[in-house]
């Protein structure tokens, strides 16, 4: 087994801990009221990721859905006990811009308190379902800061049908919210090729691009080894045996099921090609570089 160069950047390895039936791509055929009756596979899939990370001595950040934590508290305890960072993925995996601020606030506090009660540790990081903090839902950052979150990883600097703020910074930066609080943002990785921003953060992009193409894009996003980047994955993405919903649209099936059988092997290769740690460890790697700190941008929300 090869190992990445110890001098290469420490990228952020993040896992959104949710089940296959939680995803937005299948929301048109699976209703939340059905979730409790469906066979869960999140525990076994997360366990496989834990074993792989242990083999490669990688500590990751697990963005845990409150719905999952409530039903599998022992899994969350195990994640924390093995030295991984626990962050929040909200409670019900609903798109933020489809929620009212009141509902979002209630679910955000519920999930945060649940995770803190299970682990006995403060939860400081957050990631919205399907990266749904957009220009229409920047109000969510006020609620996150009020709840005690100090950093977020929900903003994708691309154009997409469900998410993204295309002209937002591609490197970590700070955001001043309406209430005057500061929250740090670690955006999802994008490569810049021929004047275009191309997603290079993981998930479906990791499965759909051939691995050499994704590896090039991830290296491109890092300035070819100059700065840390954000990678993400879901436990269901290494599970080709999950139930298949043929009544979903062809595009949803493409997004969700493409190359599930290849994802685990690609992840093994990725861990050999790049260095990974938690989101907090990777974010802090920016701090010694004064140039990068000066280049950080502040979004002032009017």
TrEMBL record:
Matching Gene3D superfamilies: Glycoside hydrolase/deacetylase
Provide the GO MF annotations for this entry: hydrolase activity, acting on carbon-nitrogen (but not peptide) bonds
Q: Which InterPro entries does this chain map to?
A: DUF3473, Glyco_hydro/deAcase_b/a-brl, NODB_dom, PuuE_HpPgdA-like, XrtA_polysacc_deacetyl
Q: Where does the record place the NodB homology domain?
A: 26-302
* GO BP, sorted A to Z: carbohydrate metabolic process
Q: Which PANTHER family match?
A: POLYSACCHARIDE DEACETYLASE FAMILY PROTEIN (AFU_ORTHOLOGUE AFUA_6G05030)
**Protein name, per record:** XrtA system polysaccharide deacetylase
Organism this protein belongs to = Marinobacter sp. MMG032
């Amino acid at each position: 087994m090869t190992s990445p160069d110890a001098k290469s950047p420490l990228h952020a390895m993040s896992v959104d801990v949710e089940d296959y039936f939680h995803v937005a791509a299948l929301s048109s055929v699976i209703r939340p009221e059905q979730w409790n009756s469906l066979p869960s596979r999140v525990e076994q899939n997360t366990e496989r990721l834990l074993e792989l990370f242990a083999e490669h001595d990688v500590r990751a950040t697990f963005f845990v859905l409150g719905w999952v934590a409530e039903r599998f508290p022992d899994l969350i305890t195990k994640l924390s006990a093995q030295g991984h960072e626990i962050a929040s993925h909200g409670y019900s995996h609903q798109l933020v811009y489809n929620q009212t601020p009141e509902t979002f606030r209630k679910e955000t506090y519920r999930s945060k308190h649940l995770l803190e009660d299970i682990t006995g540790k403060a939860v400081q990081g957050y990631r919205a379902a399907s990266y749904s903090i957009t220009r229409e839902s920047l109000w969510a950052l006020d609620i996150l800061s009020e709840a005690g979150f100090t950093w977020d990883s929900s903003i994708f600097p691309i154009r997409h049908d469900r998410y993204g703020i295309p002209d937002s910074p591609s490197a970590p930066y700070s955001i001043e919210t309406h209430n005057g609080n500061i929250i740090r943002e670690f955006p999802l990785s994008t490569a810049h090729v021929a004047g275009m921003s191309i997603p290079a953060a993981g998930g479906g992009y990791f499965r759909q691009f051939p691995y050499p193409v994704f590896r090039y894009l991830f290296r491109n996003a890092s300035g070819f080894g100059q700065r840390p980047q954000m990678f993400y994955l879901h436990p269901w993405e290494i599970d080709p045996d999950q139930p298949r919903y043929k009544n979903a649209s062809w595009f949803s099936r493409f997004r969700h099921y493409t190359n599930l059988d290849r994802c685990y092997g690609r992840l093994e290769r990725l861990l050999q090609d790049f260095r990974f740690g938690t989101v907090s460890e990777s974010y802090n790697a920016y701090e010694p570089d004064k140039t990068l700190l000066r280049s950080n941008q502040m979004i002032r929300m009017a």
